[in-house]
Amino acid sequence: MQPIDFKDVTIGGGFWGELQRKNAEVSVYNIHKRFAETGRFRAMKCIRDDAHKPHVFWDSDIAKWLESVANILAKKEDPQLKAWADEAIADICNSQLPCGYFNCYFQVYEPENIFRKRPEHELYCAGHLIEAAVALHEAGVDDKLYAAMIRYADYIYERFYVKKDAGFVTCGHPEIELALVKLYRATGAQKYLDLADFFIEERGRHNEETYAFTYPVYHLDHAPVREQKTAEGHAVRALYLYIAMADVARLKGDRELADTCETLFEDIIGKKMYITGGTGSSYHGETFTFAYDLPNIFAYSETCAAIALAFFCDRLARIRNRAVYHEIFERVLYNNVLAGESRDGKGFFYVNPLEFHENIYDYNEGLKTKLFCPIPERVEVFDCSCCPPNLTRFIESIGSYIYAEEGGTVYVNQYISSSARVGGAQLLIESAMPYGGTARVRVQGKADLRLRVPAWRGGVSMKVNGRRAEPQIADGYIALACDGDTAIDLDFRIRPRFVYANENVWYDNGRKAVEYGPLVLCAESCDNGPNLRAVRVRSLAGAKVSAGEGPFALEVPAERLRTSAALYSYEPPVPERCTLKLIPYFAWANRGKGDMQVWFL
Q1: Each residue's pLDDT tens digit, 108-117
Q2: Under CATH, which architecture does the 403-491 domain have?
Q3: Active site residue: 67, 120, 131, 286, which one?
């Protein structure tokens, strides 16, 4: 399946139109401001400044910001963003060593250790710079960084593939692999695909350096990739590796490697994924742990891991399209991914818990030796700020995940208001999602159409050119042949519903979550008072959509269980009727510090 690139898709109004406007006018600007204040842009000049010593991964922060700008400028002009990008690109190109190497940390502070410290993100940073360069080139924005990164990729090829004289074989943080695939597709140069394949196949075959606090599985070194059947280790590293594996499997027609990717995907969604689409449940190593280990209060669930899972779904669909890939993409997108950004577009979450207690956080803040505890409100920059520019580049490219084509068949995979030309037909989508379950798909021209049926549907009804028609559903898609001007009105009958976790997820035993279409809902204490864990929801029969401070809220009849004043009592709790106000999970923590909960009695 071949997706239609976002540059060939026009996003309409509504939910995503507003989100992209805010992304381009607020988020990218504010990230630039904070990166400038913290010295990230200055570091690209490669001038020693011990007062603002860069982290080893600052190159990647700037690279993702540049990719965000490339994606914006591909669709509209912005002289200020172009000027900032040109300045950063000039600094990188002017600082690049004659051999092609660039890294703002190593070439200034540890030149003797270039390609000697495996865990320290050198090739990870190179990969993000390559991605940015390809994005700028393909958007017609800049070719200087593209030429510079081709030189860098050639140097990496020489050192790691030809001479094999570097101090390690594979990078501690996968990313270079998927970037090399993008460079191969942009240039057509086979050596970049060969190098990506080399890095993938050599992983797990050498006794390589890891961080002192970790172990081989953290870096995905516990086994060769074809022998890895369960998702292990650092979630972002793992998923970036799986993305590259899927890319190489598709390009080389490698069925065994593709099957390995499918096995890993099934392990994630079947045993290691939060209801919000989050992955990587443990703070220790930001890792996948073991099956069904999905704590809520101390969930890690990094924003970058959610974005990586969305990318992995996309790559798997390109190998062999299945509706489930787009279902998981949708779950990740509207929940964990969007939770990573504040309503005003300026603040970000690195960690995304499914439950928050203000008392726990306040107590922890008073400790001299603090334990891991998610923060209550989004912040504008982190010491490790991989997530903010990852979000902005992803949001700007959302058009790439709506339409696709395969063997003359046109697919609509996400219902996002937009338009595009696919094959011989012009398509236009007007969607009420995520807050409504209706969409109109208009087709001008001839198309063998496949419309994905959401997994959350309460039913399906369809009209074609105003006349009711029985949808023919197979493999998660409605099949429809269009010729001429065809208007298809879809109603997936959105309604609230309970979701129950597998009994092995002991954190959620006896509890239920509420979904509304693609949205996982949560409650906050600012709407419902304290002690949300004492709230019981028996039925959703009386639930109704209400106006809230945000765009959507659901009011549900509920009970609050009251006990006596004693610490322990022989009297059972007394239920008191109440109304539970639920909002989208992605919208929590926008109204000050307070409790939050997803799973209820």
Answers
A1: 999 999 999 9
A2: Sandwich (2.60)
A3: 286
